[in-house]
Amino acid sequence: MKTVKDTLCGRRSVRRYEREAISADDMALIYDAIRNTPTSYNGQQFSVIDVTDQQLKERLYEMTGQKQIKTCNHFLAFCGDYNKIRTIARAKGIEMPEFENTVDGLIVATVDATLAMMSAVVAAESVGLGTCCIGYARTADPEGIARELGLPKGVYVVCGLALGIPREEPDLKPKQPLSLLVHSNHYRTDDLTPDLMAYDAEISHYNETRSGTKSTNDWAAHIVGYYTEAMTYDMLRHLALRGFHLQS
Ligand SMILES: Cc1cc2nc3c(=O)[nH]c(=O)nc-3n(C[C@H](O)[C@H](O)[C@H](O)COP(=O)(O)O)c2cc1C
Q1: What residues contact residue 244 under an 8 Å CB cut-off, 6+ apart?
Q2: Residue 170, class by beta-carbon neighbours within 10 Å (0-12 exposed, 13-18 middle, 19+ buried)?
Q3: Fewest CB atoms less than 10 Å from the CB: which of 22, 30, 164, 169?
Q4: Residue 79, Cβ density class (10 Å: 0-12 exposed, 13-18 middle, ≥19 buried)
Q5: What pTM value is reported for the model?
Q6: Separation of 4 CA from ligand 1 center, angstroms?
Q7: Helix (H, G, I), strand (E, B) or coil at 113
Q8: Mutation choice for ligand 1 from 11, 12, 13, 110, CB with most ligand atoms inside 8 A
């Protein structure tokens, strides 16, 4: 097993995998790590759909365009989940407020599912597996994916995670310097622009020189381009179809 430092600081997204299956022991570790995720109120407002059926993976690939979903060994869909607490509250005659219709309710379940995904990432990385988070599992075709995964009302996909034995070792991607990420006691008051410009230049250089597919992307325009694409997603409508009628 890798050290914590190698696991966390040597992690990079891996998008190509060997055909070999992940061992049962490694999957058991990943499931245990998922189970022991810290969650708001210990409410465990999340569930995971572990997709191993190759035909289902292929259909999810067709819906998302994310090849990793069909080539990985396990595809885990991390979902926010109020179906479980609603089910037991109903069974015990406990009147439950419509917490899932509040913004904080959505944040609570989204944070829980995201932390569970990170637990899985860390566990998988620690035993040398390759991982890639897949946000398109949430955004590409929310209704089609919910149907394929048989999600009941009160359950929505937050993010997917592809797991497999790595078939590539991409260069580590440069990240923002600590001066932009960690603020001491209060948020920085000086101009962030010079540090941001330096980081933008560093990423551009990485994109032009990295091993594998190269590009001329800078960081800022690339990220803003994603936001522009994301403006078309209409998550409010998709969430309403999943039983979330967000109000405040
Ligand atoms: C929430 C989330 C969603 C992501 N969605 C995708 C995705 O749909 N497809 C993909 O190829 N990579 C996806 N990624 C991977 C990011 O592109 C990657 O983490 C980022 O470029 C940093 O690179 P690194 O993971 O190698 O450090 C996602 C990562 C996160 C955390």
Answers
A1: 100, 101, 105, 106, 154, 156
A2: middle
A3: 169
A4: buried
A5: 0.97
A6: 21
A7: helix
A8: 13
